[in-house]
Write a structure and sequence with these properties.
Number of helices: 9
Strand content: 15-25%
Pathway: Cofactor biosynthesis; pyridoxine 5'-phosphate biosynthesis; pyridoxine 5'-phosphate from D-erythrose 4-phosphate: step 3/5; Amino-acid biosynthesis; L-serine biosynthesis; L-serine from 3-phospho-D-glycerate: step 2/3
Modified residues (N6-(pyridoxal phosphate)lysine): 197
Largest sheet: 7 strands, mixed
Helix content: 25-40%
Function: Catalyzes the reversible conversion of 3-phosphohydroxypyruvate to phosphoserine and of 3-hydroxy-2-oxo-4-phosphonooxybutanoate to phosphohydroxythreonine.
Bound molecules: 4'-deoxy-4'-aminopyridoxal-5'-phosphate
Radius of gyration: 21 Å
Order of helices and strands: EHHEHEHEEEEEEEHHHEEHEEH
Number of strands: 14
CATH architecture of the largest domain: 3-Layer(aba) Sandwich
CATH topology of the largest domain: Aspartate Aminotransferase, domain 2
CATH class of the largest domain: Alpha Beta
Strand order of the largest sheet: 2-10-9-8-5-3-4
Protein name: Phosphoserine aminotransferase
Structural class: alpha/beta
Binding site for pyridoxal 5'-phosphate: 77-78, 103, 153, 173, 196, 238-239
Amino acid sequence: IDKQVFNFSAGPAPIPREVLEQAREELLDFNGMGTSVMEISHRGKEFIKVAEESEQDLRDLMNIPANYKVLFLQGGARGQFAAVPLNLKGSKKSADYVNSGHWAQSAIKEAQRYLNVNIIADGKLSGFRQMPSQEQWRFSSDAAYVHYTPNETIGGLEFPYIPETGDVPLVADMSSNILSRPIDVSKFGVIYAGAQKNIGPAGLTVVIVRDDLLEKHTSACPAVWDYATQASKDSMYNTPSTFAWYLAGLVFKWLKRRGGLAEMDKINERKARKLYGQIESTRFYSNNIDPCWCSRMNVPFTLADPELDAVFLVEAAKEGFLYLKGHKAVGGMRASLYNAVPESHVDALVSFMQEFERRYG
Ligand code: PMP
């Protein structure tokens, strides 16, 4: 018997129901092979087809130019925190980083093991409610790249624009907002994302890298994270995370069937508007991010009376709402609204919040 739940997890996050049903359907007999996709060689033609189709579908969805490689790696976004400096440092000694919150800071800390980090813009000064305008960013003259975090999963701050960095490659940790809207990939040197939010299951990391940057790697880079090595082996230098890759491929096909990223953009906008609309309509709930910088994917909010936090979570759990507790670094509540969260679930959350306020407000 299906139990109706409303999953607002920040990650690992919901996977489209249709995709899970298809995976269940194919689980014991993939492609008439009499075995599951988990149990076949990554080098056989059946899995190569999965790999090639998923890459092509992702290229179609994101409109990825031909001079970019798409890699399907392991190690998560935190692995990329190290892989980025090790792959892009070249002969430079430093890189520019934008500090927009928790995940940007984690990326900075890891990069500092490998090169000098200049923090060129710091949201700390505004309590991470917004970022300084680009005119105020202090770009350095000899940076290997500029790194930023387009969406801060914990803080709930999302860039409303793509920064301009001229000839210096722009690197983005797109873990929590990749595939949520169309973007111009040609503005980036590297885009990377852990899969477990908007792509598929944990254990897979997507990296999109411009060809000319493959030459900048350092010998210290582990081969499994070396973009040039993995690109030359079609992401199969080592055994890839095959089941996660297969599921990601099903998610890409689901996205295409639903109208691609332009359609996702509209739905995500509507979902976010509904939830922020509810939060803004009353003093009972609040979110303190500057409206231009509010994340559409991760919506943290607090109750005017923090004593009610625990009651809110208990009552929500009774109604089938999962993972509304805010990250421990910030407290309060958080609802993540990735692509696979249906709009009807946001409607259910808004109704629950209204009802809760009627009872406890
Ligand atoms: N960057 C961002 C923006 C994230 O949201 C997360 C995970 N929540 C990470 C990095 C870390 O990802 P992983 O656990 O895949 O290393």
